[in-house]
Amino acid sequence: MTDRSDAADAADETPSIAPDELSERLQSSDPMTVLDVRDRDEFERWHLTGDGIEAVQIPHMKVVQAQATGDVTDLVTDLEEPILAVCGHGEASAHAVDLLRDAGLDAANLAGGMDAWADLYRVRELDVDAPARVLQYDRPSSGCLAYAIYSGGEAAVIDPLRAFADRYDADATDRDAALTYAIDTHVHADHVSGVRTLADRTDATAVVPDGATERGLTFDAMTVGDAAERSSASPASHTRQDAVDELRIGDVTLTVLATPGHTTESISLRLEGGDSPILFTGDTLFLEGVGRPDLERGDDGAAAAAGQLYETLRTRLLEHPDETTVAPGHYSDAAEPRDDGTYAARLGTLRDRLDALSMDDAAFVAHATSELPPRPSNYDRIVAANLGLEDVDADTAFELELGPNNCAVAD
């Protein structure tokens, strides 16, 4: 019997592509067939998607059976080349690739499998007009985006992922910066937040929207809110008198904007200091749509939340000038990256691109509550973990957040 180490050695010798190369291919929409040899339930939960990709699931057991009967070619006769084979760790798919190549097909293996794909975390610098460096962290497997702002020897991370907490810390150390804040724009439903982990491991202060306390927050954190909302008489206000409305990072300031709708406590953050502001919009506004309104309050509360989101967009975000840079918290296959690979756009471009931003309130609510994608996998447990209501270890957290984010209503 071949043991696991022998299988891994064989996988290393099989023609393969690394996860970062796969990311480049997905961004360029190069056509390929993805042969997924995991079991059906794993495939349906999460598989590779994108323009140019045709995903086909054939369990590894069928490949083994076809090898035994000499019918491998018949099994894959309809697959268009080139073929990328994937599995959990890259070993079963390597076996499939060897058989495909023996049959004369152009096939390669995803090195390390879907686990390695989930571990890929890329960082690029945003081209912004501010006395600060802004780095965008991109997890291609889920479309989750996080940001680090560096100015005057200090740094803050917005929407950090727990799985990559060490990365933010190491990057700040490499840049001789003190990590001062770890900030969440809302209670995330698609990934386990890294704010507590960073606060525990570094001198960073955990920062959450003030409204998170009303959702059941159980851990100590600085709460932030919108000064305009605090001074209003709105019954929807979640901002207490003691909530901070600005965060200073070196030579720049982050101003808190209340942007409810996706969730009741959602905030956006405006980076001041340059001629053109930058809006970190979390899950409120994306390059390809707006935040879905049903995750916190369910289907029954989705219409009211969508109405709140409409007001948020109209009175809090669209009032900014067209040259404002929108830096979202996620992207999907429908989002177009910039030439440098980053996901950001001018607000004026989004005004022209997204029909949702020019709809009246009734049309917007109908649009935002119809044909919603499936809810993120395990979103209820992820929310509980992010509020501190459930403790999950690192391995469990990794498993909970695998798959697409599904937090947007596509335009």
Short description:
This protein is about 30% helix and about 20% strand. With about 400 residues, it is an alpha/beta fold. It has a seven-stranded mixed beta sheet.
Number of DSSP strand runs: 20
Spatial order of the strands forming the largest sheet: 6-7-8-9-10-11-12
Strand content: 15-25%
Mean pLDDT: 91
Query: In CATH, what is the class of the largest domain?
Result: Alpha Beta
N/C terminus separation: 53 Å
- Low-confidence spans: 1-7
Provide the structure class.
Answer: alpha/beta
> Which term fits the overall shape?
globular
InterPro entries: Metallo-B-lactamas, Mito_Persulfide_Diox, POD-like_MBL-fold, Rhodanese-like_dom, Rhodanese-like_dom_sf, RibonucZ/Hydroxyglut_hydro
Pfam families: Lactamase_B, Rhodanese
Domain Rhodanese: 28-126
Organism: Natrinema pallidum
If you had to describe this structure to a student in words, what would you say it looks like?
With 411 residues, this protein is an alpha/beta fold. It folds into two domains: 16-117, Oxidized Rhodanese, domain 1; 121-410, Metallo-beta-lactamase, Chain A, CATH 3.60.15. Helix content is 32%, strand content 22%. The protein has helices spanning 4-13, 19-28, 40-45, 60-69, 72-75, 92-102, 113-119, 165-174, 195-201, 227-231, 298-317, 347-353, 361-369, 379-387, 394-400, and strands at residues 16-17, 32-36, 53-57, 83-86, 107-110, 122-125, 133-139, 144-151, 154-158, 178-183, 205-209, 222-224, 246-249, 252-258, 267-272, 278-282, 289-291, 325-328, 345-346, 408-410. It has a seven-stranded mixed sheet. It has a six-stranded mixed sheet with strand order 13-14-15-16-18-19. Strands 1-5-4-2-3 form a five-stranded parallel sheet. A hairpin with a 5-residue loop joins strand 15 (267-272) and strand 16. Helix 11 (298-317) packs across helix 13 (361-369). Residues 1-7 have low confidence and may be disordered.
